């Protein structure tokens, strides 16, 4: 069986252009499988798989939240830390419109729209992370400090 070719997505292009050292991890995508599925398929701790969530504030301004796969985002606490009135997750259609990626394949790199990024601070404590490479069934492994260099995120503590 031929090895599946690594996808060249806007995320991969951005990582290559920034000279980020990353590893490719393809796996069989499962609809609504989330980070539990990708962690199982890769044989890694779900805590090291970082999900990319597209949300909006009360004015419908989009933002990206990066969170551990095994945790949820306290939108109330995120709004408080941002100084917003409220934060809500986008519908899949709206998230795709903002990011240019299908839900389940959303990457913080190479998004269609420039959006502010909020990073759960404890992600930086990990020696390595896996996050979406811009296609369903495809994660990239990298040093979490690269998130700071490329995305210049605001650090938050909103995991529950």
Descriptive account of the structure:
The model has no long low-confidence stretch (mean pLDDT 95). This protein has one domain (23-156): YbaK/aminoacyl-tRNA synthetase-associated domain (YbaK protein, Alpha-Beta Complex). It has five helices and eight strands. The N and C termini lie far apart (42 Å). The protein is α/β, with parallel strands linked by helices and 160 residues long. Strands 1, 2, 3, 4, 5, 6, 7 and 8 form an eight-stranded mixed sheet that branches. Helix content is 25%, strand content 26%. The radius of gyration is 15 Å and the shape is globular.
Write the SSE topology.
Layout: H1 10-17, E1 23-26, H2 34-42, E2 49-57, E3 62-68, H3 75-82, E4 87-89, H4 92-99, E5 117-120, E6 129-135, E7 138-142, H5 145-151, E8 154-156
Parallel strand pairs: 2-6, 3-5, 5-8
Antiparallel strand pairs: 1-7, 2-3, 2-4, 6-7
